[in-house]
Amino acid sequence: DDGNGNVKALVLSEVRFTGGKLEEVPGTEREIPADIVLLAMGFTGPEKNELLTGLKVEYDPRGNVLRDEEYMSSTDGVFVAGDAGRGQSLIVWAIAEGRACAAAVDKYLTGNTNLPVPIPPTAGPLVV
Question: Could you tell me the residue range of the domain that residue 33 belongs to?
Answer without folding.
Answer: 1-37
